[in-house]
Amino acid sequence: MNSVLSRVSSPADVRALSGPDLATLAHEIRDFLVRNVARTGGHLGPNLGAVELTLAVHRVFDSPSEPILFDTGHQSYVHKIVTGRADRFDGLRQTDGLSGYPSRSESPHDWIENSHASTALSYADGMAKAFDVRGDRRPVVAVVGDGALTGGMCWEALNNIAASDRPVVVIVNDNGRSYSPTIGGFAEHLAGLRLRPSYERMLRNVKGTLGRTPLVGPPLYDALHGFKRGVKDLLAPQGMFEDLGLKYLGPVDGHDLEALENAFLLARQFGAPVIVHCVTRKGYGYAPAENHVGDQMHSVGVIDPETGEQASLSNRSWTSVFADEIVRIGESRDDIVAVTAAMLLPVGFGGFAERFPARTFDVGIAEQHALTSAAGMAAAGLHPVVALYATFLNRAFDQLLLDVALHKAGVTIVLDRAGVTGEDGPSHNGMWDMAILGVVPGLHMAAPRDEATLRAALQEATQIEDAPSVVRFPKTPLPPEVPAVRSVGGVDVLIEPAPGRVDVLLVSVGAMATDAIEAAGHIGEAGYSVRVVDPRWICPLPAELIELAADADVVVTIEDGVVVNGVGSRVSALLRDAGESVPTRALGIPAEFLDHGKVADVRSRIGLTPRGISRRVIEFAAAVSGRDASGSEVATGAPGFSIEPENRRD
């Protein structure tokens, strides 16, 4: 290969390139990204827009000695390429392959595992403080999308960074978007500069000035900074950063390598906190992304690299069912409002926003604010529906507990991507919610198993006006209908054995129903009678579980959340408090961070498959009853008999 990219395996290689070779490299990286992400899926648009910016950062700063942090981490693909990981992109986000985010296990150039937004500035502040304490004044660079700057944590960090003289360089990658157009006053502040008629002329002038300015130290920097502040104030008020005490440099064309490099050199030489404002275009250089309606191909599945067309997928998903049902509910009730945290389309609020724009509120990447704002809406007579990815609710637990639940506010929280999500790795698995939310007083939580129960749960949840309600569902494909044989109060019976006492009561949680039913078949083949039930509302648990458990020799719960303090723990407590001594066991996700990979592969690793479930249930039932897997009588602990640890992997 004679390509420039084939000669690049480290930042030093990038620094050694000439101007023409750099331009070629940027083109080759975009082609490389399109070809590889088209096969695996991933965050395409953000990385296409950050090519020149990332190359310039690596030419000016000496990674890994000088940390380069990405917020959010999904814009780090170019960083991975130039730090020696290009040959691993065929396994991007795949089992045992390259992570879609910075990963410390992959490279010393990745200082943090950063995949949730609005955190990099706090990391940068902490690193700069640590270096300072050790007498080491090296720069720390945080590349921050302006979508991340809608999160309050960024401003807490900026307040600390500005109060010091430590060399923290904050590079604002301003493409006007997070998933979709960025919401909020700060985004409008930046847009005011980008969209004014005289912006392009001013940008050209600033680029020219930066390109001609020799690097003679802070005095010239201050003079240039003062000049540009005056120009900016004529075009759009930009005093916010200066009011914090931060030097501001920009705006800089985020696709002009020379202008970027000069700006970063100025920022580096200043030796104190600096904001460098870079204006980029998401999806830049790839027409299907640039012309994509909605999010400029922020995140894609498998696509045709020539056209950008998505591989054919069923339009029936958990999210699409929610999207349809929330519009129905909104049409029948004018007090229903939608609240999203910069994820209007991914969580399924697009149709609601189109139908009821005045009743749709995107608060930006600010989950804490979303919950407390929703509590305020409820206090004033509305019923907010807050839709989030399950993993992001962790950030707003305090607000849910003390601002929503304490006030008995009628707020419905819809958790998309609950359970194992797979390719996006440990930070995105929605596995914590059932364990965490079980301690919230008064909270109601539903885990639907199919389309019909999801629609019913949404209808019921939005009728609860004196407490928070939660409806959770996974990323996995929507299963066929799983009908109930009968219902016992609030519990649906999905599999009913012949009359008489049952050996095993399987309590299936939500979307685990199809796995539980398949596992029941394997357990039955081993000679055990099995009843499979679905409580639908898992918090509070229906009392009818007590009588169903009393009719079984063992009770096993199956959930797609962490086992520690999960639904299984609450079922055991329910039976214990009722005086029932039936042996119980909880099967679910171990309390550990799961590696990225296909959902099926991750579940197989932790034994959360029909075969893995049935094997552990049979061994548990055998230990209790004194039978082996074939149903024959044996003494517990006999040769060949083993009880696996609670979270054994397959």
Based on the model shown, name its key terms.
Rossmann fold, globular, 650 residues, single chain, 18 strands, 40% helix, six-stranded mixed β-sheet, disordered C terminus, alpha/beta, seven-stranded mixed β-sheet, 3 domains
What does this structure look like?
There is one protein chain. By secondary structure, the protein is of the alpha/beta class. Residues 178-188, 191-200, 209-237 and 631-650 have low confidence and may be disordered. The chain is built from 25 helices and 18 strands. It folds into three domains: 62-75 and 94-290, 3-Layer(aba) Sandwich (Rossmann fold); 318-474, Thiamin diphosphate (ThDP)-binding fold, Pyr/PP domains (Rossmann fold, 3-Layer(aba) Sandwich); 486-625, 3-Layer(aba) Sandwich (Rossmann fold). It is globular, with a radius of gyration of 27 Å. α21 crosses α25. The protein is 40% helix and 16% strand.
